[in-house]
Amino acid sequence: xxxxxxxxxxRVIVVVVLLxxxxxxxxxxxxxxxxxKNNVVADSYLHIRSNANFAMVVDSIKSHxxxxxxxxxxxSAIEMNYVNRVxxxxxxxxMGMGNxxxxxxxxxxxxxxxxLSFQNIRLKSNFAAYIAKKIEADSMSIISLxxxxxxxxxxxxxxxxxxxxxxPNSYExxxxxxxxxxxxKMNNEYKRFWSDERLKKAESIGLTPVEVSVLASIVDAxxxxxxxxxxxxxxxxxxxxxxxxxxxxxxxxFAVRDFSIRRVLNKHLKKSSPYNTYQVQGLPPGPIMMPSVxxxxxxxxxxxHNYIYMCAKEDFSGYHNFAIQKTEHIMNATKFQQALNQRxxxx
Length: 347
Hints:
There is one protein chain. The protein has about 350 residues and is mostly helical. It has 4 domains: about 1-30; about 35-110, Dna Ligase, domain 1, CATH 3.30.1490.480; about 115-190, no CATH class; about 195-340, no CATH class. The protein is about 50% helix and about 5% strand. It contains 15 helices and 6 strands. The protein has helices at about 1-35, 55-65, 70-80, 100-105, 125-130, 140-145, 150-155, 180-195, 195-205, 210-220, 230-240, 250-255, 265-270, 295-300, 325-340, and strands at about 45-50, 90-95, 115, 170-175, 310, 320-325. The strands form 3 sheets. A two-stranded antiparallel sheet has the order 1-2. A two-stranded antiparallel ribbon has the order 3-4. Strands 5-6 form a two-stranded antiparallel sheet. Helix 5 (about 125-130) runs antiparallel to helix 6, helix 10 packs across helix 11 and helix 10 (about 210-220) packs across helix 14 (about 295-300). The longest helix is centred in the first third of the chain and has 35 residues, at about 1-35. It starts with a helix and ends in a 5-residue tail after the last helix.
């Protein structure tokens, strides 16, 4: 009797142990499947907007087909209390990620920075459109600040010259950057760029940093060869000192707003605009393109000479013929015009 009871008890213990083992295996499998099994379809990015809630995050994941099993992500997110801790940003989803690793990344807001670089962008509208493709702020919010005299006053800029604040370079910033945060970062970079040494050089040539950048934009537009930048900068500084009009063809093209022009004609020179340096004295009110750092430094370190005229060389090499006397300049201009005619470049 006692032996039977012991035997039955052993059977019960064995069954209980087996059930516990099977239950443990099932629990481990479910836990692994829910939290640790790869659930990311492919290397991709999840963009979470600043006003997003958990439902919006799930909608974005579904619409972009980022996960293999959205349901396990949802249940895991609920258990890990991510639902109430949604943080905006640009998150890099990598192959091999399970829900736990993914959700921990989202909770900690461990987003990947955006690499941003720009140069030679001519118009503010083009610049705003480009930036809007890189960060959360849309082009309209950027344009509204670029055109806001009241807002720009705090940075000591105005809608005409604010473009000089944006220095062509490579930057890193977070995707969920607002338009105002972007301006703040660019202004800090601008202040760092204008070191005491550069400020002293600007003062020595009688220009403010903004005026240096405006002149640099003209130098940039004129110079197809970087080595000529300091020479061209010196030429325009000579004209400014003599009280002569700059008479720069790129300013005329900017005033006309026809960037397909290859030959500036008399009708273009008559365009009434503060940017037409054939019509107005001194520098235009703002840059005609985003000036490069090389062009800015070329103005600050201009080459001293007596040239006051220049004309593109007739061999279309990108170099210029420089002249001191107007008679010599007319000869150079005639050769270039003949070369344009030979190539049938009429406009």
